[in-house]
From TrEMBL:
UniProt source species: Roseovarius nanhaiticus
Keyword Cell inner membrane set for record: yes
Membrane topology note: Multi-pass membrane protein
Xref: InterPro entries: DctM, TRAP_DctM-Dct_fused
Coiled coil regions in record: none
Domain TRAP C4-dicarboxylate transport system permease DctM subunit as annotated: residue spans: 145-610
Protein localization: Cell inner membrane
Record function comment: Part of the tripartite ATP-independent periplasmic (TRAP) transport system.
Listed GO CC annotations: plasma membrane
Cytoplasm as UniProt keyword: no
Protein name, entry field: TRAP transporter, 4TM/12TM fusion protein
Length: 696
């Protein structure tokens, strides 16, 4: 292995540097500085919000409109105190125009948001008789909430989602002017506000309900679990298990990201947390800077698809699909494994190609010692999973999980402070305060996004545009399928039927839209929009609802590593000091396994285990074909199978990868036939040393 030059070394980051980097690439945590008095006020409100949700998760959720309205009111008020107008963070000053360091405009917007959000639950009984015939005050309050909500979402996560919401509302209003199949009678502003504000089909709909009822609690659990050291335990265990193999730090990155992702669900947070340790280690053993950063980014995006937390989407699925959470978590197991398997194969092949070493025994922690020192931190996760598997509600599982975290936190401080009971009590109270405040802060942006997505979903249900788009897309896909089927008719066997080709082209178009939407919209909002628009398309072609939801979800996550807005990749590039765009392109290549797998489980649904028509034979064939296809595609990208590959061999492996994942016996056989000469030529290289292979 070549010596690592001083310029190829990178230092591990401090906590402050990690926080600054996360804020740079994740607008959702770019909170404004506040004066000490306002810090305590905002912190107190955040703490109360967390206490409210912790209490209701254990002792019962209030009436839906009251619960959702209360959560939204808290959120809107806090956003205007936590985020500045354009993201700049000047030092606050207490003046006549900025009382307590916050501008008068922000005070007005915060109060307007609170009042308009609470208006519906305050007069709910009366509103039940006014839906469809709102009073003037109802329209005014609804208009205020829509405007304030768009500004709050813009501050918390940028322009794209508010712009999309405006376009959808314009479509609802100007329906008679729309072209072709998109035309509709149009709706007055009064009817639009009535539907979006006074019914459960808009702002106060399922999306906001899921955030307030499930997601907040699991965000808080993730913060608490990280606080007690569960995340660090996962990183240390991954190091002890995977670090000794070729390219060890890269494999540690993959394994630790998978484990940490099970309690986090945030791509950028995972990238910064694990990448601050793994990226410097990867560079030290010889991985190029951009590749090291790309490995961490590609691995960390898997956090959103890894049970049991899966960010917010798992809980949205249980509401929209009407299935238990255990069904969603079971369905996610194999696809999540496939993602990490794909990244792991590529880092392994890259390590072999470069002749990179693993970590020495002296550089690795001992697995048993790590677990012995930190086993107590795993208790909350076991409690959470056990409660979920027992059939209890997800929010009750989160309640017991958070309660377990608090118990572990107290025990840790008692051990740390010995006989100093008061010191342990103060430390526990301080850490609990900080965790509850941080957990509530992290929920602000996702709540605003979910409420604004309710506007988009409301327009879809008001106008029926989802089915209009479905008709257009399937018509185009069917035309392409007929053309391709005619071109393939010269073959002695049928590779894919016209209906299968129609479905494939529909999936490709849906995947492209998901990725493009995800370039400016967080995964949760992307998923909500796409199931409103794309799910009807896939349903028309016979795709099971669970499969359709997983398909759009997986491609939405891809946006975090897809240039030009690959935020997880750019955060990793910041740690590695590498070219951001090159890092994003490499991360996308490393995540290609995730791009293949959704097509596999659409054509072979048994991969999701809990679908209708599941058979073990289809499952085994699907898993085997997917793993083989991912390996061949990885080899083509890495230019290495057993040894270096020739250009035609890389082309054969790339084509074979597509055929191997296809649920068609003929396609699979053709794929195997294509890779046979490649494998036969490479087999003798097994007897060579790594240096001899690299010299070929």
């Amino acid at each position: 292995m070549a010596e690592i030059s001083e310029s190829d070394r990178v230092k591990e980051m401090t906590d402050a540097e990690m926080k600054a980097l996360e804020e740079k690439y994740d607008p959702e945590v770019r909170f404004r500085p506040l004066l000490p008095s306002m810090t305590w006020i905002v912190g107190g409100v955040l703490f109360v919000l967390s206490c409210y949700h912790f209490y209701t998760s254990g002792y019962g959720i209030p009436q839906a409109s009251v619960h959702r309205g209360t959560h939204l009111a808290f959120t809107l008020g806090l956003i205007f105190f936590s985020f500045t107008v354009f993201g700049a963070r000047p030092e606050p000053r207490n003046t006549l125009m900025t009382p307590m360091g916050v501008s008068l405009a922000d005070w007005v917007l915060a109060i307007a948001g609170i009042v308009s959000a609470l208006y519906v639950p305050w007069v709910f009984n009366d509103l039940a008789f006014r839906v469809g015939n709102p009073l003037f005050i109802d329209v005014v309050m609804g208009t205020i909430l829509i405007v304030v909500l768009m500004e709050a979402t813009r501050r918390a996560m940028g322009w794209p989602l508010p712009v999309i919401a405006i376009l959808f509302m314009a479509y609802a209003y100007f329906g008679q002017s729309m072209p072709g199949v998109l035309t509709h009678p149009g709706a007055s502003w009064t009817n639009i506000v009535n539907h979006l504000y006074l019914t459960s089909q808009g702002i106060y709909g399922t999306a906001l309900g899921v955030i307030a009822t499930y997601v907040f609690h699991f965000v808080l659990f993730g913060v608490m679990a990280t606080r007690i050291g569960l995340g660090q335990l996962f990183i240390d265990l991954a190091s002890s298990l995977a670090g000794r193999f070729a390219g060890g730090p890269a494999k540690v990155s993959v394994v630790s990201s998978a484990m940490l992702g099970s309690i986090s669900g945030s791509s950028i947070a995972n990238t910064v947390t694990t990448g601050s340790l793994t990226i410097p280690a990867m560079i030290r053993i010889g991985y190029p800077r951009h590749f090291a950063a790309a490995v961490e980014a590609a691995s960390s995006t898997g956090g959103q698809i890894t049970p049991p937390v899966m960010g917010a989407v798992a809980f949205l699925m249980i509401e929209y699909l009407g299935v238990p959470l255990t069904t969603i978590l079971t369905a996610a197991l194999v696809p999540a494994f496939m993602h990490f398997f794909g990244v792991l194969v590529q880092v392994h092949l890259e390590a072999r190609r470069r002749g990179l070493r693993g970590l020495s025994k002296d550089e690795l922690p001992v697995a048993w010692a790590v677990f012995k020192a930190g086993w107590l931190t795993t208790l909350p996760l076991f409690v959470l999973v056990a409660t979920l598997l027992s059939g209890k509600t997800p929010y009750l599982a989160a309640f017991y999980g958070i309660l377990s975290c608090i118990l572990v936190l107290i025990i840790q401080n008692l051990v740390r402070h010995g006989s100093d009971i008061m010191g342990a009590a103060k430390a526990s109270a301080s850490e609990l305060w900080d965790s509850f405040v941080t957990g509530a802060k992290f929920s602000l942006s996702v709540t605003a996004a979910a409420a604004l997505v309710g506007v988009i979903i409301g327009v879809v249900t008001l106008t029926g545009v989802g089915f209009k788009i479905a008709y257009m897309v399937t018509s185009v896909a069917a035309g392409w399928a007929e053309s391709v089927s005619g071109a393939l008719s010269v073959l002695p066997f049928e590779v894919m039927s016209v209906s299968a080709l129609t479905l494939m082209f529909t999936l490709i178009m849906t995947a492209i839209v998901c990725i493009l939407m995800g370039c400016g919209i967080p995964t949760t909002a992307n998923y909500l929009i796409m199931i409103a628009v794309a799910a009807p398309i896939l349903s028309m072609l016979g795709v099971q609802p669970l499969v359709a939801h997983f398909f759009v979800f997986y491609y939405g996550v891809m946006a975090d590593i897809t240039p030009p807005v690959a935020l997880a990749a750019y955060a990793a590039a910041g740690i590695a000091d590498s070219n951001a765009f090159k890092t994003g392109n490499t991360a996308f290549r490393l995540g290609m396994g995730k791009a293949l797998v959704p097509f596999v489980f659409v054509f072979s649904p048994s991969l999701l285990i809990v679908v209708d028509g599941f058979t073990w034979s289809q499952f085994i064939i699907g898993v085997t074909g997917a793993m083989a296809g991912i390996w061949m595609l990885s080899a083509a990208f890495a230019d290495w199978l057993i040894g270096p590959m020739r250009a035609y061999e890389r082309a054969l492996c790339a084509v074979a990868a597509i055929l191997l994942v296809a649920p068609n016996l003929y396609a699979t056989l053709v794929g195997l036939a294509l890779i046979a000469p490649v494998v036969l030529r490479q087999l003798p290289m097994l007897r060579m040393s790594p240096a001899e292979r690299a010299a070929l």
